[in-house]
Design a protein that fits this description.
Blueprint lengths: L2 E5 L4 H29 L6 H11 L2 H5 L4 H24 L4 H26 L9 H15 L9 E5 L1
Antiparallel strand pairs: 1-2
Length: about 160
């Protein structure tokens, strides 16, 4: 019997899980950098988490002082997990790691456009308040962190013939 190597890709479930993990890690980096930026601009570091909680509590929660940091953390974590899992499923269909890297940056830009320019303009106007160029950067950074989690990394398995 001879042993030969065959390149195999992990299942879609594995890509979704790896993407979700990357999303959580990328989301943590994203919120950390965003909190730092907020503080560097003279705003409370928790302002981004309060803003995120307003997705659930409504824009009035920001002015009323009822916005919630723990809720902001939960909403951001869930969104990061979902966005990462979706990218994992996209990456599963892409042929090479370089393609995944480029697609990740496009995906990050699309996330920004949908979240801030589409949903933000029409449903969540409070999302027009943050510094938009910084938000583009933060979304690109998020996607750049997710990408290596779903790289193919030359998945090899050995099969006996």
């Amino acid at each position: 019997m001879s042993i030969h190597e065959a390149r195999t890709k992990p299942s879609l479930v594995r890509y979704a899980l790896l993407g979700a993990l990357g999303g959580v890690v990328g989301g943590a980096l994203f919120i950390g950098v965003t909190m730092w930026f907020s503080a560097s601009q003279g705003n409370p570091a928790v302002a981004p988490l309060n803003l995120i909680s307003s997705i659930v509590l409504g824009a009035d929660s920001l002015m009323a002082g009822t916005a919630s940091v723990p809720l902001g953390v939960a909403v951001h974590t869930v969104n990061s997990l979902i966005f990462g899992a979706i990218f994992g499923l996209i990456a599963a269909r892409l042929p090479r790691d370089a393609t995944i890297a480029v697609a990740a940056l496009v995906y990050g830009l699309i996330l920004y456009l949908v979240n801030f320019q589409l949903i933000g303009r029409f449903a969540l106007p409070q999302f027009q308040m943050p510094n938009q160029p910084f938000e583009v950067f933060a979304h690109l950074a998020f996607a750049a962190v997710v990408a290596p989690f779903v790289f193919h990394w030359g998945h090899n398995t050995k099969h006996k013939a």
